[in-house]
Amino acid sequence: MSLVTMCSSFFLTGLAMGSGPCLLTCGPVLVSYIAGTKNSAAQGLACWSIFSLGRVLSVVFLSFLAGCAGSFLFRFFYWTITGYILWAITGFFICSLGIAIFCGRYNTAPSCCGPAACYLSRRQAKDTVLLGVLTGLMPCLPLAGVLSYISMVSTHFADGILFGLSFGIGVSVSALILMSLIAGAVPGFIHLRQGRGKIILYKLSGVILMIFGFHILFKILVEFISTK
Question: Domain locations in the chain?
Answer without folding.
Answer: 3-226
